[in-house]
Write a structure and sequence with these properties.
This protein is 72% helix and 0% strand. By secondary structure, the chain is mostly helical.
Length: 167
């Protein structure tokens, strides 16, 4: 199999085929980038949470509110992890082919840009529950980053097996 026959996957290029040092380097850099973005999001969520309305609460109610936030954040962290693992398991049963995966990623990036613009005001209104939302995101991304093989890689391998005789 020549490198020109191997389909390129977004974020991994053709390194997924041999899973050598370049593959793990790309996965590590992707994880570090996502963790940096996630850390910034959690910082912003915490800073917004520490503002109003928490700062206007009496000390006794503030402690109850904080404990409730911690408990809710722990629950949503687990929910985010479980949801992403279930989605990945479902995708592994019917992995996307390289062209399908690439088209879905392009459509997803356009939607994400629109949602980020539309979500600024509701995000500020959701400041009291923002730590729980951030915890859900942490769980979701942690499940994504710790998966051994991505569905797109499985789909690309199947595509290669189907087209091996054609190439």
């Amino acid at each position: 199999m020549t490198p020109t026959d191997i389909p390129s996957l977004p974020g991994l290029g053709t390194t997924w085929y041999e899973r050598g040092p370049r593959y793990w380097l790309r996965r590590t850099f992707s994880a570090l980038f996502l963790l940096t973005v996630l850390a910034f999001f959690c910082y912003v969520a915490l800073r917004l949470y520490l503002g109003a309305p928490r700062s206007d609460m009496p000390p006794g109610l503030r402690r109850v509110w904080d404990v409730t936030q911690v408990a809710g954040s722990c629950v949503t962290l687990v929910q985010g992890w479980v949801k992403q693992r279930r989605d990945l398991r479902r995708q592994l049963l019917d992995p996307p082919m390289p062209d399908t995966f690439r088209a879905a990623k392009q459509a997803e990036s356009g939607r994400a840009r629109n949602w980020s613009r539309a979500g600024l005001v509701p995000l500020l209104l959701a400041a009291p529950i923002l730590p729980a939302i951030a915890a859900w995101c942490v769980g979701w991304f942690a499940a994504t980053l710790t998966v051994r093989v991505h569905p797109s890689e499985v789909g690309a391998r199947r595509w290669l097996e189907e087209h091996e005789g054609v190439l």
